[in-house]
Protein backbone atom coordinates (compact mmCIF):
# COMPACT_ATOMS: atom_id res chain seq x y z
CA UNK A 1 0.00 0.00 0.00
CA UNK A 2 1.55 3.27 -1.15
CA UNK A 3 1.50 6.06 1.43
CA UNK A 4 1.38 9.69 0.42
CA UNK A 5 1.55 13.20 1.77
CA UNK A 6 -0.75 15.81 0.20
CA UNK A 7 0.03 19.50 0.80
CA UNK A 8 -2.29 22.32 -0.22
CA UNK A 9 -1.05 25.87 -0.78
CA UNK A 10 -2.02 29.16 0.81
CA UNK A 11 1.02 31.39 0.47
CA UNK A 12 2.62 32.10 3.82
CA UNK A 13 -0.20 30.22 5.55
CA UNK A 14 1.79 27.19 4.39
CA UNK A 15 4.36 27.92 7.10
CA UNK A 16 1.86 25.94 9.17
CA UNK A 17 2.55 23.06 6.77
CA UNK A 18 6.30 23.62 7.13
CA UNK A 19 5.93 23.25 10.89
CA UNK A 20 4.01 19.99 10.43
CA UNK A 21 6.47 18.54 7.93
CA UNK A 22 9.53 19.57 9.96
CA UNK A 23 8.26 17.59 12.95
CA UNK A 24 7.58 14.60 10.70
CA UNK A 25 11.07 14.82 9.21
CA UNK A 26 12.64 15.09 12.67
CA UNK A 27 10.76 11.93 13.64
CA UNK A 28 11.95 10.12 10.49
CA UNK A 29 8.44 9.62 9.13
CA UNK A 30 8.68 8.36 5.55
CA UNK A 31 6.27 8.49 2.64
CA UNK A 32 6.31 6.81 -0.75
CA UNK A 33 5.34 10.09 -2.37
CA UNK A 34 4.43 13.74 -1.81
CA UNK A 35 2.26 16.00 -3.93
CA UNK A 36 2.31 19.73 -3.35
CA UNK A 37 0.34 22.64 -4.76
CA UNK A 38 1.68 26.21 -4.82
CA UNK A 39 3.34 26.91 -1.45
CA UNK A 40 2.77 23.25 -0.63
CA UNK A 41 5.23 22.52 -3.43
CA UNK A 42 7.72 25.31 -2.69
CA UNK A 43 7.95 24.29 0.96
CA UNK A 44 7.27 20.58 0.44
CA UNK A 45 10.34 20.02 -1.72
CA UNK A 46 12.39 20.37 1.47
CA UNK A 47 10.91 17.05 2.63
CA UNK A 48 12.54 15.17 -0.23
CA UNK A 49 15.81 17.10 0.27
CA UNK A 50 15.57 16.39 4.03
CA UNK A 51 16.06 20.00 5.15
CA UNK A 52 13.83 20.74 8.17
CA UNK A 53 13.79 24.40 9.15
CA UNK A 54 14.76 25.69 5.72
CA UNK A 55 11.36 27.10 4.67
CA UNK A 56 10.97 29.21 7.80
CA UNK A 57 14.61 30.27 7.76
CA UNK A 58 14.74 31.72 4.27
CA UNK A 59 11.33 33.37 4.57
CA UNK A 60 12.54 35.24 7.64
CA UNK A 61 16.05 35.95 6.37
CA UNK A 62 14.86 37.44 3.07
CA UNK A 63 11.52 38.96 4.04
CA UNK A 64 12.90 42.50 3.66
CA UNK A 65 14.83 41.84 0.46
CA UNK A 66 12.86 43.40 -2.41
CA UNK A 67 14.25 40.77 -4.78
CA UNK A 68 12.42 38.05 -2.87
CA UNK A 69 8.77 39.10 -2.56
CA UNK A 70 7.76 42.72 -2.97
CA UNK A 71 5.66 45.12 -5.00
CA UNK A 72 8.95 46.53 -6.34
CA UNK A 73 9.65 43.11 -7.81
CA UNK A 74 6.16 43.02 -9.30
CA UNK A 75 6.53 46.45 -10.91
CA UNK A 76 9.98 45.62 -12.32
CA UNK A 77 9.39 42.06 -13.48
CA UNK A 78 5.68 41.26 -13.40
CA UNK A 79 6.24 38.75 -10.57
CA UNK A 80 5.46 39.57 -6.95
CA UNK A 81 7.83 36.75 -5.99
CA UNK A 82 11.06 37.45 -7.86
CA UNK A 83 11.60 34.54 -10.25
CA UNK A 84 15.37 34.65 -10.70
CA UNK A 85 16.21 35.52 -7.10
CA UNK A 86 13.73 33.24 -5.35
CA UNK A 87 14.06 30.16 -7.53
CA UNK A 88 17.68 30.30 -8.63
CA UNK A 89 19.88 32.71 -6.64
CA UNK A 90 18.44 31.80 -3.25
CA UNK A 91 18.63 27.97 -3.53
CA UNK A 92 21.99 28.02 -5.33
CA UNK A 93 23.88 30.70 -3.41
CA UNK A 94 22.15 31.92 -0.25
CA UNK A 95 20.26 29.05 1.42
CA UNK A 96 21.59 26.06 -0.44
CA UNK A 97 19.10 23.44 -1.55
CA UNK A 98 20.39 19.88 -1.12
CA UNK A 99 20.07 18.68 -4.71
CA UNK A 100 21.98 15.45 -4.09
CA UNK A 101 19.75 14.32 -1.22
CA UNK A 102 16.67 15.24 -3.26
CA UNK A 103 17.92 13.03 -6.09
CA UNK A 104 18.84 10.08 -3.84
CA UNK A 105 15.67 10.12 -1.73
CA UNK A 106 13.35 7.46 -3.23
CA UNK A 107 10.20 9.38 -2.24
CA UNK A 108 8.35 10.57 -5.34
CA UNK A 109 7.73 14.33 -5.56
CA UNK A 110 4.85 15.71 -7.62
CA UNK A 111 3.66 19.25 -8.30
CA UNK A 112 0.38 20.59 -9.66
CA UNK A 113 0.11 23.50 -12.09
CA UNK A 114 -2.68 25.00 -14.18
CA UNK A 115 -2.51 25.34 -17.96
CA UNK A 116 -3.35 29.02 -18.43
CA UNK A 117 -4.73 28.48 -21.93
CA UNK A 118 -6.93 25.44 -21.29
CA UNK A 119 -7.72 25.77 -17.58
CA UNK A 120 -6.74 22.13 -17.06
CA UNK A 121 -4.52 20.77 -14.26
CA UNK A 122 -0.99 19.73 -15.19
CA UNK A 123 0.86 17.20 -13.02
CA UNK A 124 4.63 16.80 -13.02
CA UNK A 125 6.83 14.31 -11.17
CA UNK A 126 10.28 15.68 -10.35
CA UNK A 127 12.89 12.99 -9.68
CA UNK A 128 15.90 15.29 -9.94
CA UNK A 129 15.86 18.98 -9.05
CA UNK A 130 17.29 20.99 -11.95
CA UNK A 131 16.80 24.58 -13.09
CA UNK A 132 13.77 23.33 -15.00
CA UNK A 133 12.53 21.53 -11.89
CA UNK A 134 12.74 24.75 -9.92
CA UNK A 135 10.71 26.44 -12.65
CA UNK A 136 8.03 23.73 -12.31
CA UNK A 137 7.80 24.59 -8.63
CA UNK A 138 7.66 28.29 -9.51
CA UNK A 139 4.86 27.59 -11.96
CA UNK A 140 2.88 25.73 -9.32
CA UNK A 141 3.10 28.81 -7.08
CA UNK A 142 2.59 31.52 -9.72
CA UNK A 143 -0.55 33.27 -8.51
CA UNK A 144 -2.59 34.88 -11.29
CA UNK A 145 -2.62 38.69 -11.49
CA UNK A 146 0.68 38.99 -9.57
CA UNK A 147 2.71 36.47 -11.61
CA UNK A 148 3.59 35.90 -15.23
CA UNK A 149 2.75 32.46 -16.65
CA UNK A 150 5.76 30.13 -16.69
CA UNK A 151 6.47 28.52 -20.06
CA UNK A 152 7.39 24.84 -19.79
CA UNK A 153 7.00 21.96 -22.25
CA UNK A 154 5.02 24.12 -24.65
CA UNK A 155 2.53 25.23 -22.03
CA UNK A 156 1.91 28.49 -20.16
CA UNK A 157 1.49 27.52 -16.52
CA UNK A 158 0.08 29.18 -13.41
CA UNK A 159 -0.74 28.25 -9.82
CA UNK A 160 -2.03 24.69 -9.46
CA UNK A 161 -4.48 25.75 -6.77
CA UNK A 162 -6.64 27.45 -9.39
CA UNK A 163 -8.06 24.10 -10.53
CA UNK A 164 -6.87 21.49 -8.01
CA UNK A 165 -6.23 22.96 -4.59
CA UNK A 166 -6.14 19.66 -2.66
CA UNK A 167 -5.03 16.94 -5.11
CA UNK A 168 -5.93 13.92 -2.99
CA UNK A 169 -8.09 12.29 -5.66
CA UNK A 170 -5.32 12.54 -8.25
CA UNK A 171 -2.84 10.93 -5.85
CA UNK A 172 -5.29 8.12 -5.17
CA UNK A 173 -5.79 7.59 -8.91
CA UNK A 174 -2.04 7.02 -9.41
CA UNK A 175 -1.86 4.46 -6.63
CA UNK A 176 -1.57 6.23 -3.29
CA UNK A 177 -4.16 4.51 -1.12
CA UNK A 178 -3.31 5.85 2.34
CA UNK A 179 -2.65 9.57 2.60
CA UNK A 180 -2.00 12.26 5.14
CA UNK A 181 -3.44 15.59 4.00
CA UNK A 182 -2.21 18.88 5.48
CA UNK A 183 -4.57 21.84 5.11
CA UNK A 184 -3.96 25.51 5.88
CA UNK A 185 -7.56 26.32 6.75
CA UNK A 186 -9.36 25.15 9.92
CA UNK A 187 -12.02 22.47 10.07
CA UNK A 188 -15.36 23.92 9.04
CA UNK A 189 -13.86 26.42 6.60
CA UNK A 190 -16.06 27.11 3.57
CA UNK A 191 -14.66 29.04 0.60
CA UNK A 192 -16.70 31.91 -0.83
CA UNK A 193 -16.56 33.20 -4.39
CA UNK A 194 -13.66 35.60 -4.79
CA UNK A 195 -14.46 39.31 -4.75
CA UNK A 196 -11.62 39.92 -7.21
CA UNK A 197 -13.47 38.71 -10.32
CA UNK A 198 -13.58 42.25 -11.86
CA UNK A 199 -9.79 42.39 -11.48
CA UNK A 200 -9.42 38.96 -13.08
CA UNK A 201 -11.55 40.10 -16.00
CA UNK A 202 -9.35 43.17 -16.37
CA UNK A 203 -5.90 41.60 -16.01
CA UNK A 204 -6.38 38.06 -17.37
CA UNK A 205 -8.20 38.84 -20.62
CA UNK A 206 -5.62 36.82 -22.56
CA UNK A 207 -6.51 33.75 -20.49
CA UNK A 208 -10.30 33.35 -20.40
CA UNK A 209 -9.94 29.78 -19.08
CA UNK A 210 -8.27 31.19 -15.95
CA UNK A 211 -11.09 33.71 -15.49
CA UNK A 212 -13.63 30.90 -15.75
CA UNK A 213 -11.68 28.69 -13.35
CA UNK A 214 -11.39 31.46 -10.76
CA UNK A 215 -15.12 32.09 -11.04
CA UNK A 216 -15.85 28.52 -9.98
CA UNK A 217 -12.82 27.91 -7.77
CA UNK A 218 -14.90 28.11 -4.59
CA UNK A 219 -17.17 25.35 -5.90
CA UNK A 220 -14.19 23.13 -6.73
CA UNK A 221 -12.58 23.75 -3.34
CA UNK A 222 -15.72 23.09 -1.33
CA UNK A 223 -16.36 19.88 -3.27
CA UNK A 224 -12.83 18.78 -2.41
CA UNK A 225 -13.54 19.47 1.26
CA UNK A 226 -16.63 17.25 1.05
CA UNK A 227 -14.52 14.52 -0.53
CA UNK A 228 -11.93 14.82 2.25
CA UNK A 229 -14.65 14.40 4.86
CA UNK A 230 -15.92 11.31 3.06
CA UNK A 231 -12.43 9.76 2.82
CA UNK A 232 -11.71 10.61 6.46
CA UNK A 233 -14.85 8.77 7.56
CA UNK A 234 -13.73 5.73 5.55
CA UNK A 235 -10.33 5.80 7.28
CA UNK A 236 -8.44 6.34 4.01
CA UNK A 237 -6.86 9.64 5.04
CA UNK A 238 -5.63 11.44 8.11
CA UNK A 239 -6.28 15.18 8.10
CA UNK A 240 -4.05 17.71 9.84
CA UNK A 241 -5.27 21.29 9.94
CA UNK A 242 -5.05 24.36 12.18
CA UNK A 243 -7.57 24.61 15.00
CA UNK A 244 -8.36 28.22 14.08
CA UNK A 245 -7.91 30.60 11.16
CA UNK A 246 -4.19 31.23 10.78
CA UNK A 247 -3.20 34.77 11.81
CA UNK A 248 -1.33 35.63 8.62
CA UNK A 249 -2.18 36.76 5.11
CA UNK A 250 -1.11 34.94 1.97
CA UNK A 251 1.75 37.40 1.33
CA UNK A 252 2.14 38.94 4.81
CA UNK A 253 5.85 39.09 5.69
CA UNK A 254 5.57 39.70 9.42
CA UNK A 255 8.26 37.77 11.28
CA UNK A 256 6.29 37.40 14.50
CA UNK A 257 3.30 36.00 12.60
CA UNK A 258 5.47 33.73 10.47
CA UNK A 259 7.06 32.20 13.56
CA UNK A 260 3.66 31.89 15.24
CA UNK A 261 2.09 30.07 12.28
CA UNK A 262 5.11 27.77 11.99
CA UNK A 263 4.88 26.91 15.69
CA UNK A 264 1.16 26.21 15.29
CA UNK A 265 2.08 23.65 12.63
CA UNK A 266 4.70 22.06 14.86
CA UNK A 267 2.21 21.84 17.73
CA UNK A 268 -0.40 20.22 15.46
CA UNK A 269 2.11 17.59 14.33
CA UNK A 270 3.36 16.91 17.84
CA UNK A 271 -0.20 16.56 19.14
CA UNK A 272 -0.97 14.07 16.36
CA UNK A 273 2.38 12.28 16.21
CA UNK A 274 1.11 8.98 17.61
CA UNK A 275 -1.91 9.05 15.28
CA UNK A 276 0.40 9.75 12.33
CA UNK A 277 2.69 6.84 13.17
CA UNK A 278 -0.24 4.49 13.80
CA UNK A 279 -1.98 5.55 10.58
CA UNK A 280 1.12 4.94 8.49
CA UNK A 281 1.80 1.61 10.18
CA UNK A 282 -1.70 0.41 9.25
CA UNK A 283 -2.87 0.21 12.86
CA UNK A 284 -6.52 0.81 13.51
CA UNK A 285 -6.91 4.31 14.90
CA UNK A 286 -9.84 6.45 15.79
CA UNK A 287 -9.76 9.37 13.36
CA UNK A 288 -10.94 12.77 14.47
CA UNK A 289 -14.10 13.63 12.52
Brief sketch in words of this structure:
The chain is an alpha/beta fold and 289 residues long.
Describe this structure in words.
The protein is an alpha/beta fold. Helices cover 45% and strands 15% of the residues. It has 13 helices and eight strands. Mean pLDDT is 96; it is low at 284-289.
Secondary structure layout plus pairing:
Layout: E1 2-7, H1 15-26, E2 33-37, H2 39-48, H3 54-61, H4 71-77, H5 83-94, H6 99-104, E3 108-115, E4 121-125, H7 131-140, E5 150-152, E6 155-159, H8 168-173, E7 176-182, H9 197-203, H10 208-215, H11 217-234, E8 237-240, H12 255-271, H13 273-280
Parallel strand pairs: 1-2, 1-7, 2-3, 7-8
Antiparallel strand pairs: 3-4, 3-6, 5-6
> What share of the residues does DSSP label as strand, in percent?
5-15%
Order of helices and strands: EHEHHHHHEEHEEHEHHHEHH
The number of distinct β-strands equals 8
Helix/strand class: alpha/beta
Features:
289 residues; 8-stranded mixed beta sheet; disordered C terminus; 15% strand
Amino acid sequence: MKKGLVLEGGGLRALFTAGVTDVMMENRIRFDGLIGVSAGATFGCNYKSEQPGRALRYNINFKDDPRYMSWRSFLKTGDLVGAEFSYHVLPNQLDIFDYETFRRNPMEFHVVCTDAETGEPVYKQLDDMTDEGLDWIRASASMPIVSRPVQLEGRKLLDGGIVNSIPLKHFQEIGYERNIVVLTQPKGFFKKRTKLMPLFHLTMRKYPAIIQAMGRRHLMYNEQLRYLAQEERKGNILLIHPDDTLPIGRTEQNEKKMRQVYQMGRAAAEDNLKRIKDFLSDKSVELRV
